[in-house]
Amino acid sequence: MSRSVKRGPPSTIVIKLGTSSIVHEETHQPLLSILSAVVETVISLRSHGHKVVLVSSGAIGVGLRTMDIPQRPKSLSKKQALAAIGQGRLIALWDNLFGQFDQRTAQVLLTRGDISDRTRYLNAVNTLNELLSMGVVPIVNENDTISVSEIKFGDNDTLSAITSSMIHADYLFLLTDVDGLYTSNPRKDPSAKKLDVVISVAAIRAQVSTSTLGSSLGTGGMETKLIAAEIATGAGVTTAIASSKQPSVVVDIIDYYAALKSTSVPTSGAASPTAPQNLNQVNLDEVAASLSWPRPPHTVFKPALIPMRDLKAWTSHTLYPAGSVIIDSGAHSVLSRRESGGRLLPAGVLGVRGSFASGQAVRILVHRPTEGVPVESKEVAQIPYSNVAATTPCTPVLEPGASVTASVTSLVPLSRSGSSASLSDDMISDSQTITDDEIPLIEKTDECEIWDCVEVGRGLANYNSAQISRVRGLNSARIAQLLGYADTEYVVENITIRVSA
Asked: How far apart are CA 318 and CA 110, in angstroms?
């Protein structure tokens, strides 16, 4: 964009470059023209005060060239060996190119297993932030040499989205071989139309074809970019798909949106006194019409107005679920409200699947009842979840505080008179020991294993699978009586519910 630009405040930017943009698909030679252009773009962004993280694929592709192997192998061990061979040469190539501008770089190799532990996750966040504060460009890649399917991010698109969430980036750029998101493959369908702005990834899925599988060297396609956009925008990161053949478009896009944000557009006859800080607060079509600048070619995904909390983002996107907790529709309805705090009481639990320990991530499933068969066939939940959620917390060890008022306990007004008396009738004295024979509500069956369920979110288990199975459908007051202790009245916390469009 060759014009005088009033640049916005410094931003944190993540740029993802795929294998097909780094090495030639057939000869596996490094595409030095594209790599050099990316380096020049990063240097330009740094000169404007921005902090930049580069997420680079290509280790296996470079390894193929080094070992003169014609095509990507199918064997996991061979791919890992090639990644080990190629990663060193790849980072040396980047370091050499950046070195021409005296720009320091750092190699950061991650796996999902590395950041599934909260302490190690925070260490990775601190390291990335420290590198950025030192003026270094971190070059991030998945550690393919030791990754297995259970701990892989799946694709560097996902890795770049998680990285942008970790460092609270302002922008994520997914550079690919097309200049945006199209309704179908533009190479095969001449009627394919590019989408300029996407507000909801869930809503747009039905309008676009994501059947492209990427290059023979890569692992993803447009579908993985939609997944990445969903993760990043949920964390409040403005995400864009643009062409890797012209990396300088990244600078143009940032300048373009800085101009949009700084342009006051009257909403009721008077200009807005304050420029909006979030792109979601800008009417892009209206403001763009008032500018004389051409729109750089790209597709932008607008960020969520209320970004996901860091802990919830970590739970949802970096942890591999160890099992599942099945909830009823009432619990799902309550958890879908932001005011719920993402906390699940045992009354809303219908069953569990798999074995998991306290503190592990679990899937949250909603049971879809079979037509003609009542959900509560086992008498698991005799009291509606909304009523239980509305009662006063009564776990003996729970100290009252702000966290209680922010939980589901404050969502629904008391729905029955004399709830304290009713609750005391339902409770058994703390001093009395309850045996399994006295709990007719819980039947030792595996019926829940064959239920038709759909995943609606993820969270962190406060109790193990056996303990949650014992207290499912019961009032939280009985946790201590059944288990012998009660660290909390909630069986799962930090739940992120995916709300359908």
From this structure: 11
Residues 49, 26 contacting (CB under 8 angstroms): no
Q: Measured between alpha carbons, how far apart are the two ends of the chain, in Å?
A: 36
Say if CB 200 and CB 266 are below 8 A apart: no
Among 413, 412, 416, CA closest to 334: 412
Q: Which long-range contacts (CB under 8 A, 24 or more apart) does 450-455 make?
A: 451/326, 451/350, 451/351, 451/367, 451/368, 452/367, 452/368, 452/370, 453/324, 453/326, 453/365, 453/366, 453/367, 453/368, 454/365, 454/366, 454/368, 455/324, 455/363, 455/364, 455/365
What pTM was estimated for this model as a whole? 0.67
How far, CA to CA in Å, does 312 sit from each of 93, 127, 353, 439, 466? 37, 21, 22, 34, 24
Q: Label residue 214 left, alpha or beta by phi (over 0 means left) and psi (-120 to 50 means alpha).
A: left
Q: How far apart are CA 375 and CA 447, in angstroms?
A: 11
Find out whether 245 and 267 touch, Cβ atoms under 8 Å: no
Give me the average pLDDT of each 10-residue run along the chain (501 residues).
65 92 87 95 96 93 90 85 92 96 95 76 92 96 73 73 92 92 82 88 76 46 83 91 94 88 52 49 57 84 81 64 88 84 89 85 80 45 48 35 33 35 38 41 51 82 91 91 88 75 38
Alpha-carbon distances of 84 from 60, 76, 454, rounded to whole Å: 8, 12, 39
Q: Which two tokens stand for residue 317?
A: 């996107």
At 95, the amino acid letter reads D
Where helices occur in 148-205 by DSSP H, the ranges are 156-166, 201-204
